[in-house]
Design a protein that fits this description.
mainly alpha; 2 domains; three-stranded antiparallel β-sheet
Length: 245
C-alpha cells in the first residue's frame, strides 16, 4: 500500500512543480498528503527534480523523479491543493483522491480556446498601453505567432531559450513588416503586446516566493531562469531590429 501512496504523492508533487508552483508549496503539499493518509513523508524538491521518501511502521520507500519541463497552469495547481485539503479534512478517500488527480491530467482548455485567449490578451495589453485599431489587431496576430511557435517547438522538446528567441524574432519581424504597410502604428506598443504572452511572470513570482520562504537554491535558480528567458526575448527582438535597420 505504501508504494501506491508514494506514487500518488509523487505525481501530485510533479503536477505542482511542472505547473509553475513554488518549491515550498510542492514540498508542503506532499508532506500534508502523506500525513493525511497516515504516512511519514519527507520531500526534497528542486526546480529540476523531486526526491521523496515515504515511511510506515519501519518500512521505507524512496522515489526520485526528474523534472524536464515546466509550464504555467494555475488551475492544475488549485486542483492539487483542493485534493490535499480534501484528504486533510477527511472529505476524500484515497481512491477518490487518485481519481481526481487523474482527472487533472486532462487539459481544461482546447488548443483553439488557448489561441483565442492569447490573441485577446495580446490585443488587450496593447489597448491598455494606448494602442487602437490596427495596432490591436497586429498585436493579437503577433501574440498568436508567439504562442504557436512555442507550442510547435515544445512538441520537438526544443530548448526553451531557443524557443523564446525564435518567437521574439518572428514577432518583431511581423511588427516591422506591418509598420512598412501602416507607417503610423506604434512599434513599441504593438511589440510589447505581442511578446507579453512569453514573459515568464509566473516564474518570477515563484522565485520571489521561494526566496521569501527560505528556499534560496530554488528561488535563485528560478530567478536566473526567468532572467535568461527575458534575455532571450530581448535578443530575438534585437536581432530583428538590427536586420531591419
Amino acid at each position: 500500500m505504501h508504494i501506491e501512496v508514494a506514487k500518488f504523492i509523487l505525481v501530485a508533487g510533479e503536477m505542482l512543480l511542472t505547473s509553475g508552483a513554488e518549491v515550498y508549496r510542492a514540498e508542503e503539499t506532499m508532506e500534508r498528503m502523506g500525513a493525511a493518509l497516515g504516512y511519514n513523508v519527507e520531500a526534497f524538491v528542486t526546480p529540476t527534480g523531486i526526491l521523496l521518501t515515504v515511511s510506515y511502521q519501519g518500512e521505507f520507500f524512496t522515489k526520485v523523479r526528474r523534472i524536464r519541463y515546466r509550464t504555467q497552469n494555475l488551475g492544475r495547481i488549485a486542483g492539487v491543493n483542493a485534493i490535499s485539503r480534501g484528504l486533510s479534512m477527511g472529505t476524500l478517500t484515497f481512491e477518490e483522491a487518485k481519481a481526481k488527480l487523474q482527472e487533472l491530467r486532462v487539459p481544461a482548455y482546447s488548443t483553439g480556446q488557448k489561441l483565442i485567449a492569447v490573441m485577446v490578451a495580446s490585443g488587450s495589453l496593447t489597448f491598455i498601453l494606448g494602442g487602437s485599431g490596427w495596432e490591436i489587431i497586429i498585436a493579437a496576430l503577433s501574440g498568436l505567432i508567439a504562442y504557436s511557435v512555442g507550442f510547435i517547438l515544445e512538441r520537438f522538446n526544443a530548448n526553451s531559450y531557443l524557443s523564446s528567441s525564435l518567437a521574439s524574432f518572428l514577432v518583431a519581424n511581423c511588427v516591422y513588416t506591418a509598420q512598412v504597410l501602416l507607417p503610423n502604428i506604434s512599434v513599441p506598443t504593438v511589440l510589447v503586446g505581442g511578446l507579453m504572452v512569453l514573459v515568464p511572470g509566473v516564474a518570477m513570482a515563484s522565485a520571489v516566493k521561494d526566496i521569501v520562504q527560505g528556499e534560496l537554491l530554488s528561488g535563485t535558480s528560478r530567478a536566473v531562469e526567468a532572467i535568461a528567458i527575458a534575455g532571450a526575448l530581448a535578443a530575438g527582438s534585437a536581432i530583428a531590429l538590427g536586420l531591419w535597420r
